[in-house]
Amino acid sequence: MLKFKRPSGTSRGVLLEKDTYYIILEHEEIPHRVGIGECSIIKGLSIDDRTHYEQKLAEVCHEINIYISNPEKELSDWPSICFGIEMAERDLQQDSSKILFPSAFTEGKAGIPINGLIWMGQIDAMKKELEEKLEAGFKCIKIKVGNAAFEDELKLLADIRKSFSPETLEIRLDANGAFKREEALEKLERLAEYHIHSIEQPIRQGKWTNMAALCGAEPIPVALDEELIGIHSKEDKDMLISYIQPQYLIFKPSLLGGFKATEEWIEIAEKYGVKWWVTSALESNIGLNAIAQWTYTLKNPLPQGLGTGQLYTNNIPSPLIVEDAKLWYKDGKWDL
Q1: Contact, 21 vs 84, CB < 8 A?
Q2: CB 18 within 8 A of CB 42
Q3: Residue among 133, 187, 237, 252 flagged as catalytic
């Protein structure tokens, strides 16, 4: 059980703790060589957030040789478990080194630009978080909206823009589907006064026609996140993007079924000229490490959403650190 350092608010509620699970693959011939993968679910969001999740996980572990041969097919409805297997298998192949994708990042020579995350909460608390991020050198921040009074959120944005121009500070918003369909366009038009880079999932997923209309009106560029969950086939992915025509896509591999599934989304996004970035799904440092290493290999220039490793009081000590608004893999040891 991962425990948050401070209550972290979203439009789906306040997070105090989070369940996560680990799959450990053992090498049949080499003792002590193991691969570790994380199965991370978000309550109320992951499609595999079900009462018998642990039962399914036990079944997969018991019949691992069946599932590992084709996890994308066998576990399409269990994306976090599919990703956990993919992660563990890659770690095992890399001699249990936790260096899943060797690069300048894992050598400590390059960092990954990331956004600073401001959680929903009381406006004063959000202001304090914002000050901390700005002092730490972040030039791109992501603010969760839709929980506090809308007028208070507008005032917070107005205060930010009094001190920081769009050229010096990029503001991303994340509504987590909080806006009602009938009021979303008006709210986006009011938010646009503060030169917002993008807004993530302004209305709940599944309302393709309404979402397409918001993307077409474009008072603020729209980024799809939750909208991608549960879309498995390449044909359905293509249909969603071609119909809604979003400006951005946000990829959480734990919610989409892993690296291979996400790379299929990337291929389709680039086909339609849709920009994208990668975000962690509140994993521990095990999952964050794998996602960060893979993300670096993609050479995406936008700030990524990979600054979640510092959220927990009991995270697994790792070489991952945040410095100068970048995520780094520096000298350090894993404590497993």
Answers
A1: yes
A2: yes
A3: 252
- Among 326, 186, 232, smallest CA distance to 203 is for 186
Residue 82, amino acid: C
Who contacts 82 (Cβ-Cβ below 8 Å, separation ≥6)?
A: 71, 72, 75, 76, 257, 258, 261
Catalytic one of 144, 187, 237, 326: 144
Is 144 catalytic? The answer is yes
Amino acid at 37: G
Domains of the chain: 2-93 (3.30.390), 112-329 (3.20.20.120)
Local structure of 245: helix, strand or coil: coil
Report DSSP letters for 91-148, one per residue: HHHTTT-S-SS-STTTTTS--EEBPEEE-BS-HHHHHHHHHHHHHTT-SEEEEE-SSS
Q: In the prediction, which pLDDT does 312 show?
A: 76
Residue scoring higher pLDDT (244 or 126): 244
Total number of residues shown for the chain: 336
Does the active-site annotation cover 234? Answer: no
Whether 249 and 66 have beta carbons less than 8 Å apart is answered as: no
* Distance in angstroms (rounded) separating the CA atoms of residues 7 and 10: 10
In this prediction, residues 249-264 reach a mean pLDDT of 95
> What's the pLDDT at 72?
78
Cβ burial, residue 107 (10 Å; 0-12/13-18/19+): exposed
Nearest alpha-carbon partner for 177 in 243, 223, 221: 223
Contacts from 64-69 at CB under 8 Å and sequence distance 24+? 64/25, 68/25
CA dihedral (141, 147, 149, 153) in degrees, to 10, reads 0
Instruction: Tell me the C-alpha distance between 160 and 250, whole Å.
Output: 24
- The pTM assigned to this predicted structure is 0.92
Q: Which secondary-structure segment (H or E) carries 2?
A: strand 2-10
